[in-house]
Automatic annotation (TrEMBL):
Pfam families: VWA
GO cellular component entries: external side of plasma membrane; integrin complex
The protein's name: Integrin alpha-1-like
Organism: Carlito syrichta (Philippine tarsier)
Presence of the UniProt keyword Repeat in the record: no
The organism's place on the tree of life at top rank: Eukaryota
Signal peptide (from-to): 1-24
UniProt keyword list: Signal
Record-linked PANTHER family: INTEGRIN ALPHA, INTEGRIN ALPHA-1
Gene3D superfamilies xref list: Integrin alpha, N-terminal
Length: 214
């Protein structure tokens, strides 16, 4: 039988030193399962899609994004604030942020904008909440740009950010009506004009129409 080899003392010391160094970079933590808190909301609203811990002068909160709030029609989404450390469990409060999340001078499309899909706290106070499917309308076209709102420490929308552009004028139309009875039947002409104008988005910065008769 071959003699058994013994490990060199130097190798054992080296292994022990490496193990000590590696353990020095390990960070442990405990999860409290006895005093856990549960926040629940409608599954169809995607309640809990985003979650952030938050604190202000009023106390500690859990911010919860719910991107499909507003079933079954608008589904704009929203963010809830849920109180923590107040003794008895208290209900979460919907902040109604989409109401004040707005860009002036554009025709907004907030339906299905999934507000609350992105939720980021600000180290200096407040937080950022976004709706990636926010859109604005130019004529019959929808441009999906997304929108974000800076929310203050007291849960008020300070300003909204979205890369929208001003809608350019589409057409300038002049309609000349001949009243000499050379066009017949006249009812067909008026029906055609009514149908044509109903299909246009008429306004100062959209299609402009001039009607002239002789």
């Amino acid at each position: 039988m071959a003699p058994r080899r013994r490990a060199s003392p130097g190798v054992a010391v080296a292994c022990g030193w490496i193990l000590t160094v590696v353990l020095g970079f390990c960070v442990s933590f405990n999860v409290d399962v006895k005093n856990s808190m549960t926040f629940s909301g409608p599954v169809e609203d995607m309640f809990g899609y985003t979650v952030q811990q938050y604190a202000n002068e009023e106390g500690k909160w859990v911010l919860i994004g719910s991107p499909l709030v507003g079933q079954p029609k608008n589904r704009t989404g929203d963010v809830y604030k849920c109180p923590v450390g107040r003794g008895e469990p208290l209900p979460c409060i919907k902040l109604d942020l989409p109401v004040n999340t707005s860009i002036p001078n554009v025709t907004e499309v907030k339906e299905n904008m999934t507000f609350g899909s992105t939720l980021v706290t600000n180290p200096n106070g407040g937080f950022l909440a976004c709706g990636p499917l926010y859109a604005y309308r130019c004529g019959h076209l929808h441009y999906t740009t997304g929108i974000c709102s800076n929310v203050s420490a007291t849960f008020q929308v300070m300003n909204s950010i979205a890369p929208v552009q001003e809608c350019s004028t589409q057409l300038d139309i002049v309609i000349v009506l001949d009243g000499s009875n050379s066009i017949y039947p006249w009812q067909s002409v008026t029906a055609f004009l009514n149908d044509l104008l109903e299909r246009m988005d008429i306004g100062p910065k959209q299609t402009q129409v001039c009607d002239s008769a002789f």
